[in-house]
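Inputs:
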Amino acid sequence: MKNDNRMTLTQFLIEERRRFPQAAGDFNSLILNVALVCKRIAGHVAAGELGGMMGSASATNVQGEEQKKLDVVSNDLFVQGNNWGGYLAGMVSEEMDLPYHIPDHYDRGPYLLLFDPLDGSSNIDINISVGSIFSVLRAAATDRPPTEQDFLQPGKNQVAAGYALYGPCTMFVLSVGSGVHGFTLCPQLGEFMLTHPNMKIPPETQEFAINASNGRFWEDPVRRYVDECIAGKSGIRGKDFNMRWIASMVADAHRILMRGGVFLYPRDTKDPAKAGRLRLLYEANPIGYLIEQAGGRASCGGHPVLEVKPTDIHQRIGLVFGSKKEVERIEDYHAHP
Ligand code: AHG
Ligand code: MN
Ligand code: MN
Ligand code: MN
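Outputs:
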Protein backbone atom coordinates (compact mmCIF):
# COMPACT_ATOMS: atom_id res chain seq x y z
CA MET A 1 0.00 0.00 0.00
CA LYS A 2 1.52 3.30 -1.14
CA ASN A 3 0.46 5.08 2.05
CA ASP A 4 2.43 2.87 4.41
CA ASN A 5 5.54 5.04 4.36
CA ARG A 6 3.87 8.43 4.15
CA MET A 7 3.87 10.89 7.01
CA THR A 8 0.54 11.90 8.53
CA LEU A 9 -0.25 15.54 9.31
CA THR A 10 0.09 14.71 13.02
CA GLN A 11 3.59 13.30 12.56
CA PHE A 12 4.57 16.22 10.35
CA LEU A 13 3.50 18.72 13.04
CA ILE A 14 5.33 16.88 15.79
CA GLU A 15 8.52 16.72 13.71
CA GLU A 16 8.19 20.45 12.85
CA ARG A 17 7.64 21.51 16.45
CA ARG A 18 10.70 19.53 17.65
CA ARG A 19 12.70 22.46 16.31
CA PHE A 20 10.89 24.75 18.80
CA PRO A 21 11.51 23.34 22.26
CA GLN A 22 9.32 26.04 23.81
CA ALA A 23 6.28 24.92 21.79
CA ALA A 24 3.42 23.66 23.89
CA GLY A 25 0.81 21.32 22.43
CA ASP A 26 -1.55 24.23 21.75
CA PHE A 27 -0.36 24.94 18.24
CA ASN A 28 -0.58 21.34 17.08
CA SER A 29 -4.06 21.01 18.60
CA LEU A 30 -5.13 24.10 16.71
CA ILE A 31 -3.91 22.86 13.32
CA LEU A 32 -5.23 19.33 13.87
CA ASN A 33 -8.66 20.60 14.87
CA VAL A 34 -8.80 22.91 11.85
CA ALA A 35 -7.90 19.88 9.71
CA LEU A 36 -10.69 17.88 11.37
CA VAL A 37 -13.18 20.67 10.63
CA CYS A 38 -12.04 20.61 7.01
CA LYS A 39 -12.67 16.85 6.85
CA ARG A 40 -16.18 17.45 8.14
CA ILE A 41 -16.80 20.16 5.54
CA ALA A 42 -15.35 17.86 2.86
CA GLY A 43 -18.01 15.32 3.82
CA HIS A 44 -20.82 17.84 3.32
CA VAL A 45 -19.35 19.04 0.02
CA ALA A 46 -18.96 15.48 -1.25
CA ALA A 47 -22.56 14.61 -0.37
CA GLY A 48 -23.78 17.28 -2.80
CA GLU A 49 -27.52 17.34 -3.35
CA LEU A 50 -27.88 14.12 -1.31
CA GLY A 51 -26.77 15.96 1.82
CA GLY A 52 -29.59 18.49 1.66
CA MET A 53 -27.13 21.35 2.12
CA MET A 54 -27.16 22.94 -1.32
CA GLY A 55 -28.67 26.32 -2.13
CA SER A 56 -29.17 29.59 -0.38
CA ALA A 57 -29.46 30.12 3.37
CA SER A 58 -31.74 33.10 2.58
CA ALA A 59 -29.47 35.43 4.56
CA THR A 60 -26.72 37.95 3.78
CA ASN A 61 -23.35 38.33 5.46
CA VAL A 62 -21.68 41.56 6.55
CA GLN A 63 -20.23 41.85 3.04
CA GLY A 64 -23.73 42.03 1.59
CA GLU A 65 -23.26 38.65 -0.09
CA GLU A 66 -25.99 36.04 -0.18
CA GLN A 67 -24.99 33.22 2.18
CA LYS A 68 -25.24 29.66 0.96
CA LYS A 69 -26.40 27.01 3.42
CA LEU A 70 -22.92 25.54 3.30
CA ASP A 71 -21.32 28.92 4.12
CA VAL A 72 -23.29 28.93 7.36
CA VAL A 73 -22.75 25.24 8.15
CA SER A 74 -19.00 25.50 7.47
CA ASN A 75 -18.75 28.57 9.69
CA ASP A 76 -20.51 26.74 12.54
CA LEU A 77 -18.20 23.76 12.11
CA PHE A 78 -15.14 26.03 12.38
CA VAL A 79 -16.51 27.72 15.51
CA GLN A 80 -17.72 24.55 17.28
CA GLY A 81 -14.60 22.64 16.26
CA ASN A 82 -12.23 25.18 17.79
CA ASN A 83 -13.94 27.08 20.63
CA TRP A 84 -13.45 24.42 23.30
CA GLY A 85 -9.75 23.60 22.87
CA GLY A 86 -8.19 26.21 25.15
CA TYR A 87 -5.74 27.33 22.47
CA LEU A 88 -7.71 30.30 21.04
CA ALA A 89 -8.40 33.78 22.34
CA GLY A 90 -10.93 34.49 19.57
CA MET A 91 -11.94 34.05 15.95
CA VAL A 92 -12.85 36.19 12.95
CA SER A 93 -14.76 34.85 9.96
CA GLU A 94 -16.14 36.07 6.67
CA GLU A 95 -19.53 34.88 7.88
CA MET A 96 -19.55 36.65 11.30
CA ASP A 97 -20.00 40.41 11.56
CA LEU A 98 -17.97 40.70 14.79
CA PRO A 99 -15.08 38.77 16.36
CA TYR A 100 -16.19 35.59 18.12
CA HIS A 101 -15.38 35.45 21.82
CA ILE A 102 -14.55 32.15 23.51
CA PRO A 103 -17.39 31.27 25.91
CA ASP A 104 -16.55 31.77 29.61
CA HIS A 105 -16.80 28.07 30.42
CA TYR A 106 -13.84 27.34 28.11
CA ASP A 107 -10.24 28.45 28.56
CA ARG A 108 -8.72 31.17 26.42
CA GLY A 109 -5.37 30.50 24.75
CA PRO A 110 -2.56 32.23 22.88
CA TYR A 111 -3.79 32.22 19.26
CA LEU A 112 -6.30 33.98 17.04
CA LEU A 113 -7.96 32.05 14.20
CA LEU A 114 -9.23 33.92 11.14
CA PHE A 115 -11.01 32.05 8.37
CA ASP A 116 -13.04 31.98 5.20
CA PRO A 117 -15.07 28.85 5.99
CA LEU A 118 -16.09 28.23 2.38
CA ASP A 119 -14.26 29.98 -0.43
CA GLY A 120 -15.80 29.99 -3.89
CA SER A 121 -19.22 29.27 -2.46
CA SER A 122 -20.95 30.54 -5.61
CA ASN A 123 -19.56 27.32 -7.16
CA ILE A 124 -20.99 24.94 -4.60
CA ASP A 125 -24.29 24.26 -6.37
CA ILE A 126 -22.58 23.45 -9.67
CA ASN A 127 -20.06 20.92 -8.30
CA ILE A 128 -16.93 22.97 -8.93
CA SER A 129 -14.05 22.87 -6.44
CA VAL A 130 -14.38 25.00 -3.31
CA GLY A 131 -12.22 25.28 -0.20
CA SER A 132 -11.62 26.73 3.26
CA ILE A 133 -8.86 29.25 4.09
CA PHE A 134 -7.38 30.00 7.51
CA SER A 135 -4.82 32.26 9.15
CA VAL A 136 -3.27 32.04 12.62
CA LEU A 137 -2.03 35.06 14.58
CA ARG A 138 -0.78 35.44 18.13
CA ALA A 139 -3.20 37.02 20.59
CA ALA A 140 -2.04 40.16 22.39
CA ALA A 141 -3.48 38.90 25.69
CA THR A 142 -5.29 35.89 27.12
CA ASP A 143 -6.64 37.54 30.30
CA ARG A 144 -9.37 39.35 28.35
CA PRO A 145 -11.42 38.70 25.22
CA PRO A 146 -9.68 40.08 22.10
CA THR A 147 -10.82 43.38 20.66
CA GLU A 148 -11.18 44.02 16.92
CA GLN A 149 -7.89 45.88 17.17
CA ASP A 150 -6.11 42.69 18.28
CA PHE A 151 -6.96 41.07 14.93
CA LEU A 152 -5.69 44.02 12.85
CA GLN A 153 -2.16 42.68 12.42
CA PRO A 154 -0.21 42.70 9.17
CA GLY A 155 0.01 39.37 7.35
CA LYS A 156 3.72 39.08 8.08
CA ASN A 157 2.73 38.39 11.72
CA GLN A 158 1.01 35.13 10.77
CA VAL A 159 2.42 32.06 12.52
CA ALA A 160 0.59 29.67 10.20
CA ALA A 161 -1.78 29.73 7.27
CA GLY A 162 -3.37 27.15 5.06
CA TYR A 163 -6.32 25.97 3.10
CA ALA A 164 -8.32 22.88 2.37
CA LEU A 165 -9.32 22.23 -1.23
CA TYR A 166 -12.45 20.16 -1.79
CA GLY A 167 -11.69 19.02 -5.30
CA PRO A 168 -11.58 15.63 -6.99
CA CYS A 169 -9.59 14.73 -3.89
CA THR A 170 -9.47 16.70 -0.65
CA MET A 171 -6.16 18.38 0.14
CA PHE A 172 -4.84 20.34 3.11
CA VAL A 173 -2.05 22.78 2.27
CA LEU A 174 -0.16 24.31 5.17
CA SER A 175 2.69 26.57 6.12
CA VAL A 176 3.92 26.96 9.67
CA GLY A 177 6.71 29.27 8.50
CA SER A 178 9.04 26.70 6.95
CA GLY A 179 7.83 26.20 3.40
CA VAL A 180 4.52 24.96 2.06
CA HIS A 181 3.45 21.36 2.41
CA GLY A 182 0.50 19.61 0.81
CA PHE A 183 -1.39 16.69 2.32
CA THR A 184 -3.95 14.49 0.56
CA LEU A 185 -6.89 13.03 2.45
CA CYS A 186 -6.63 9.24 2.42
CA PRO A 187 -10.23 7.98 2.19
CA GLN A 188 -9.32 4.64 3.81
CA LEU A 189 -7.55 6.11 6.85
CA GLY A 190 -9.40 9.44 7.08
CA GLU A 191 -5.97 11.03 7.58
CA PHE A 192 -4.16 13.78 5.72
CA MET A 193 -0.95 12.25 4.31
CA LEU A 194 2.06 14.29 3.22
CA THR A 195 2.08 14.01 -0.57
CA HIS A 196 3.49 17.39 -1.68
CA PRO A 197 6.42 18.43 0.56
CA ASN A 198 8.09 21.80 -0.14
CA MET A 199 5.80 23.12 -2.84
CA LYS A 200 7.61 25.73 -4.97
CA ILE A 201 6.19 28.18 -7.50
CA PRO A 202 8.26 28.53 -10.68
CA PRO A 203 9.37 32.19 -11.04
CA GLU A 204 8.13 32.49 -14.63
CA THR A 205 4.86 31.46 -16.19
CA GLN A 206 2.65 31.62 -19.28
CA GLU A 207 -0.66 31.40 -17.44
CA PHE A 208 -2.75 34.17 -15.89
CA ALA A 209 -6.08 34.29 -14.04
CA ILE A 210 -8.38 37.29 -13.93
CA ASN A 211 -12.12 37.94 -14.21
CA ALA A 212 -11.93 39.68 -17.58
CA SER A 213 -15.56 40.83 -17.41
CA ASN A 214 -14.32 43.56 -15.03
CA GLY A 215 -11.89 44.87 -17.67
CA ARG A 216 -13.54 48.25 -18.06
CA PHE A 217 -13.07 48.92 -14.32
CA TRP A 218 -9.36 48.05 -14.11
CA GLU A 219 -6.50 50.40 -13.38
CA ASP A 220 -4.16 51.17 -16.28
CA PRO A 221 -1.20 49.05 -15.07
CA VAL A 222 -3.44 45.96 -14.88
CA ARG A 223 -4.94 46.62 -18.31
CA ARG A 224 -1.45 47.04 -19.76
CA TYR A 225 -0.28 43.75 -18.21
CA VAL A 226 -3.31 41.76 -19.42
CA ASP A 227 -3.18 43.32 -22.91
CA GLU A 228 0.46 42.27 -23.18
CA CYS A 229 -0.38 38.70 -22.11
CA ILE A 230 -3.17 38.53 -24.69
CA ALA A 231 -0.91 39.91 -27.43
CA GLY A 232 1.24 36.82 -26.82
CA LYS A 233 4.09 36.05 -29.22
CA SER A 234 3.33 39.06 -31.38
CA GLY A 235 3.62 41.49 -28.45
CA ILE A 236 6.47 42.60 -26.22
CA ARG A 237 6.25 39.46 -24.08
CA GLY A 238 7.27 37.34 -27.04
CA LYS A 239 5.38 34.31 -25.73
CA ASP A 240 1.78 33.10 -25.73
CA PHE A 241 -0.21 33.02 -22.51
CA ASN A 242 -3.08 30.81 -21.43
CA MET A 243 -5.94 32.07 -19.23
CA ARG A 244 -7.73 30.21 -16.41
CA TRP A 245 -10.43 31.46 -13.99
CA ILE A 246 -12.13 29.01 -11.63
CA ALA A 247 -13.80 31.72 -9.46
CA SER A 248 -12.75 29.81 -6.35
CA MET A 249 -9.61 31.66 -5.31
CA VAL A 250 -8.45 28.69 -3.30
CA ALA A 251 -8.55 26.48 -6.41
CA ASP A 252 -6.83 29.13 -8.53
CA ALA A 253 -4.16 29.48 -5.81
CA HIS A 254 -3.68 25.73 -5.69
CA ARG A 255 -3.09 25.55 -9.43
CA ILE A 256 -0.49 28.32 -9.10
CA LEU A 257 1.24 26.52 -6.21
CA MET A 258 1.35 23.35 -8.32
CA ARG A 259 2.52 24.72 -11.67
CA GLY A 260 2.97 28.50 -11.47
CA GLY A 261 0.87 31.30 -12.88
CA VAL A 262 -0.37 34.67 -11.80
CA PHE A 263 -3.73 35.57 -10.22
CA LEU A 264 -5.17 39.08 -10.23
CA TYR A 265 -8.23 40.41 -8.44
CA PRO A 266 -7.09 44.02 -8.57
CA ARG A 267 -8.57 47.07 -6.98
CA ASP A 268 -11.05 48.48 -9.52
CA THR A 269 -13.68 51.16 -9.93
CA LYS A 270 -16.66 48.79 -10.11
CA ASP A 271 -17.77 49.66 -6.59
CA PRO A 272 -15.97 52.78 -5.35
CA ALA A 273 -16.96 51.93 -1.75
CA LYS A 274 -14.79 48.80 -1.90
CA ALA A 275 -11.03 48.71 -2.31
CA GLY A 276 -11.14 45.35 -4.11
CA ARG A 277 -13.07 42.08 -4.12
CA LEU A 278 -11.10 39.88 -1.75
CA ARG A 279 -10.81 40.25 2.00
CA LEU A 280 -7.44 41.04 3.54
CA LEU A 281 -7.50 39.13 6.83
CA TYR A 282 -8.90 35.75 5.82
CA GLU A 283 -8.28 35.56 2.05
CA ALA A 284 -5.37 37.77 0.91
CA ASN A 285 -3.12 37.35 3.95
CA PRO A 286 -3.21 33.55 4.32
CA ILE A 287 -2.93 32.95 0.57
CA GLY A 288 -0.20 35.62 0.35
CA TYR A 289 1.73 33.92 3.16
CA LEU A 290 1.56 30.53 1.43
CA ILE A 291 2.57 32.00 -1.92
CA GLU A 292 5.61 33.77 -0.43
CA GLN A 293 6.57 30.68 1.56
CA ALA A 294 6.56 28.81 -1.77
CA GLY A 295 8.92 31.35 -3.36
CA GLY A 296 6.23 33.37 -5.13
CA ARG A 297 5.11 36.93 -4.49
CA ALA A 298 1.87 38.50 -3.22
CA SER A 299 1.13 42.16 -3.75
CA CYS A 300 -1.59 44.79 -3.71
CA GLY A 301 -0.06 46.12 -6.93
CA GLY A 302 1.87 48.85 -5.18
CA HIS A 303 3.37 46.97 -2.22
CA PRO A 304 3.60 43.53 -0.59
CA VAL A 305 0.26 42.42 0.79
CA LEU A 306 1.83 41.00 3.96
CA GLU A 307 3.04 44.51 4.93
CA VAL A 308 -0.43 46.08 4.90
CA LYS A 309 -1.62 47.30 8.31
CA PRO A 310 -5.33 46.36 8.40
CA THR A 311 -7.92 48.90 9.46
CA ASP A 312 -11.04 46.72 9.52
CA ILE A 313 -11.61 43.00 10.10
CA HIS A 314 -13.61 42.69 6.86
CA GLN A 315 -11.42 45.06 4.84
CA ARG A 316 -11.13 44.35 1.11
CA ILE A 317 -8.00 44.75 -0.93
CA GLY A 318 -6.65 44.44 -4.47
CA LEU A 319 -4.62 41.25 -4.75
CA VAL A 320 -2.05 39.97 -7.23
CA PHE A 321 -0.08 36.80 -6.50
CA GLY A 322 1.89 33.99 -8.06
CA SER A 323 5.09 33.55 -10.04
CA LYS A 324 7.57 36.06 -8.72
CA LYS A 325 8.75 37.62 -11.97
CA GLU A 326 5.22 38.24 -13.23
CA VAL A 327 4.10 39.87 -9.97
CA GLU A 328 7.23 42.03 -9.98
CA ARG A 329 6.39 43.10 -13.54
CA ILE A 330 2.89 44.14 -12.46
CA GLU A 331 4.37 46.03 -9.49
CA ASP A 332 6.77 47.73 -11.86
CA TYR A 333 3.86 48.85 -14.06
CA HIS A 334 2.25 50.38 -10.97
CA ALA A 335 5.47 52.11 -9.92
CA HIS A 336 6.27 53.41 -13.45
CA PRO A 337 2.94 53.91 -15.26
P1 AHG B 1 -16.29 33.66 -1.18
O1 AHG B 1 -17.01 32.52 -1.86
O2 AHG B 1 -15.54 33.21 0.05
O3 AHG B 1 -17.16 34.85 -0.91
O4 AHG B 1 -15.11 34.15 -2.13
C1 AHG B 1 -15.33 34.28 -3.50
C2 AHG B 1 -14.21 34.98 -4.14
C3 AHG B 1 -13.06 34.11 -4.59
O5 AHG B 1 -13.06 32.78 -4.21
C4 AHG B 1 -13.08 34.20 -6.09
O6 AHG B 1 -11.80 34.32 -6.61
C5 AHG B 1 -13.89 35.41 -6.38
O7 AHG B 1 -14.72 35.61 -5.27
C6 AHG B 1 -14.72 35.23 -7.61
O8 AHG B 1 -15.16 36.46 -8.00
P2 AHG B 1 -16.03 36.67 -9.33
O9 AHG B 1 -17.42 36.24 -8.96
O10 AHG B 1 -15.91 38.14 -9.59
O11 AHG B 1 -15.42 35.84 -10.42
MN1 MN C 1 -18.72 34.95 0.42
MN1 MN D 1 -13.52 33.57 -0.21
MN1 MN E 1 -16.36 32.37 1.81
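Remarks. The mean pLDDT is 95. The domain at 207-335 is CATH 3.40.190.80 (D-Maltodextrin-Binding Protein; domain 2).
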